[in-house]
Amino acid sequence: MLAITGERVLLAGCGDVGLRVARRLRAQGHEVFALRRRPPEARDEGIHWLAGDLTTPATIGGLPAGIDRLVYLPAPDARDRATYEGVFLGGLRAMLAALEGTALQRVLFVSSSAVYGDHAGGWVDEDTPARPPGFNGSVLLEAERWLAGQAVPSTVVRLAGLYGPGRLQLIDRLRAGKATVPRGQVHWANRIHVDDAAAAIAHLLLLPDAGPLYLGGDDTPLPLDVLYDHLAGVVGAPRPPDGPLPAGVGSKRLSNARLRASGFVPRWPDARLGYAALLGA
Fold this sequence. Notes:
This protein is an alpha/beta fold. 32% of the residues lie in helices and 18% in strands. The protein is built from 8 helices and 13 strands. It has helices spanning 16-27, 81-98, 135-148, 169-175, 194-206, 224-235, 257-261, 271-279, and strands spanning 8-12, 31-36, 47-51, 69-72, 106-112, 123-124, 154-159, 161-163, 188-189, 191-193, 213-216, 222-223, 253-254. Helix 1 (16-27) links the parallel strand 1 and strand 2. The protein is globular, with a radius of gyration of 19 Å. The model has no long low-confidence stretch (mean pLDDT 94).
């Protein structure tokens, strides 16, 4: 398979994950533009920063010419339906309108496994019907479906829970004795290291025969108590006590078989290994 080189890529909503994607694309020789409400003062060399608010179409006009590929991965600054709709529905429509008639060849939309409900610990893949239990998953699913109906080819990647540098809230809660786990019923946790998530996004964006949908998780879904007990042992924290099931997410095991079959190999196939590297254990 021939590698795609020399693309002009726009990342819309370029936060932590987006910046990791941008650096990977730059290292591969692509030209990268990154749009954010407030671009960072300390600029990464080689990344062209653009100021714009995805919920205000007038601020995202005049985009650079010749954008070949768009990655849409904003991070809402509030957790409510109106904010999600403004960012993932209104913002996506505005961005596609701003790029209408350009050289755009593919859109990659970063979604979430929140589009799935409870599956009683069963395996979930791209063919599993999406039945979001919360407003966040509902809005993301609506955005996915709208994008699939547009003329430009698109790919959606539904990410599992992220962890990595700067994402160690779970470790802080374990150390403080504030984490609980359900011990009377198995509840499955699905994770992906933030660097693996960025690598998967960059991989799928440039994959010549990319399909419409992939699940982005590591190789090893884990019972929540197994993961928490292991991490508590690593950091010398007490074993977390019994507690209620996590609300609004459901128990399921995400299969990354399709992503693996596309040629992607995660660096951290098991969250226990990824956390150990982060913690120097």
